[in-house]
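Quick one: sequence plus flavin-adenine dinucleotide SMILES, need structure tokens.
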Amino acid sequence: MNRRDFFRLASMAGAGVSAAGLSGLVSAATPAQLGTVPTNTGISGRVVVIGGGMAGATVAKYLRLWGGTGVSVTLVERETTYASNILSNLVLNGQRTMTSLQFGYSNLATRYGIRLVKGDVTAIDSVGHSVSLADGSKLPYDRLVVAPGIDFDTIPGLETAAAQAKVPHAWKAGPQTTILRNQLVAMKPGGVFVMTIPAKPYRCPPGPYERACVVADWLKKNRVGSKVIVLDANPGITAEPLAFANAFNVVHKGVIEYRPGAVINSIDASTMTLNTNFGNLKANVINAIPAHRAGKVIIDNGLANVSGRWAGVDVLTYQSTAAPGIHVIGDAAATTQPKAGHIANQEAKICADAIVRLLAGRSPDPSPITNSACYSPITSDTASWLTAVFAYDPVSGSMQPVPGASGEATARSQDNYKEMFKWFNTLMEDSFA
Ligand SMILES: Cc1cc2nc3c(=O)[nH]c(=O)nc-3n(C[C@H](O)[C@H](O)[C@H](O)COP(=O)(O)OP(=O)(O)OC[C@H]3O[C@@H](n4cnc5c(N)ncnc54)[C@H](O)[C@@H]3O)c2cc1C
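Reply:
Sure thing.
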């Protein structure tokens, strides 16, 4: 796959591949049509969406664009603005600020007529078809979409809030990202930065390796003689193996030390010591990313029927395999696709398409296609990329990679680095604008 092919696929995030499945109901949205919610689809229903992240914001928008004004959409989000995880590794080297990664919800309300509710959903009544919020209020629904992202296991030793602030994961962009940036800046030359990577599945497969590169690149230029030790619970690099093997062994040789098969027994935040299968390691900064599981609302409401951690779904509709009428999208869902913002956007469109069809008494699209793209900075001005295309396989009932349509960049480049921002802006606009 060349760069042109990659761009063609990456730009599909803007068009939405599932839109093709809507032919016969409403025409697919194009950028020129965005903001026009049709009034004449004849389809009606109440949809509540839990979580206004990459998946939830997108599904809310496309339910209105494809369903029309008869489909009332209520989006419940606990935060006032969305903090993008994507590009948040660049906060660590000072190239982005957290403020520049904030996305508001006002477009979703004013352009698409989505009702916004700021609150925390605590309970789902799948029989009575309503959700309860922490403030005691209830919202009824005909279809519910749950998109809460992920939560983390607790690493032994990091049970308290104080310990977690001293040893941040910074794997949900926000205050912890700023803490980690400040810790990096406070490091002295010749310091040791240790990061831990959890076993798969975790969000953004290349993300931790990208972070190791961004941090190593910054330390090399600003805190000479420092080291980045990467303790990976996986047996090897889980994504973009060519790019990251080259980054670790050539570009950042002598700075990054990569150790696969790592087991973290405990972390002592007071002495900044990790107890691991490689022995005890002392560090100036520890960035410990714990194992992931689906967001709490999934676990608490009986939707985590895959190893007790993830929500099983039918990928034709993203309907939960544990409860009818409830759809789960984004990182919380157990599918064969990566846990990534681009894929969350794609799942949201397949789900919106399916809900509109179901409300109209029709069957879902039998052959959905999704795509994923990801750019990984290797230095402060070069990046590599990764892409994959998935198609529905009726035999296994799962999304499978399309042969020949996936790949990674043959080399990092400055062009890739510039294109990363175009891709990011397009994706975020498609979800939030
Ligand atoms: C450092 C880093 C870099 C990344 N880079 C990339 C990249 O380059 N490309 C890419 O595709 N992906 C990337 N990702 C992954 C991407 O950010 C996630 O896959 C994506 O955000 C998942 O979307 P989501 O909607 O499932 O969850 P989220 O985006 O986390 O959204 C979940 C939302 O639900 C809300 N919520 C949760 N529970 C409740 C509740 N009970 N009530 C109300 N609201 C609730 C939360 O507040 C949150 O706003 C990266 C991740 C990280 C950490």
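The pocket of flavin-adenine dinucleotide is lined by residues 50-56, 76-79, 82, 85-86, 88-89, 120-121, 147-149, 171, 203-204, 207, 295, 297, 330-332, 339-342, 344, 374 (CB under 6 Å). The chain has two domains: 18-151+293-366+420-432, 155-288.
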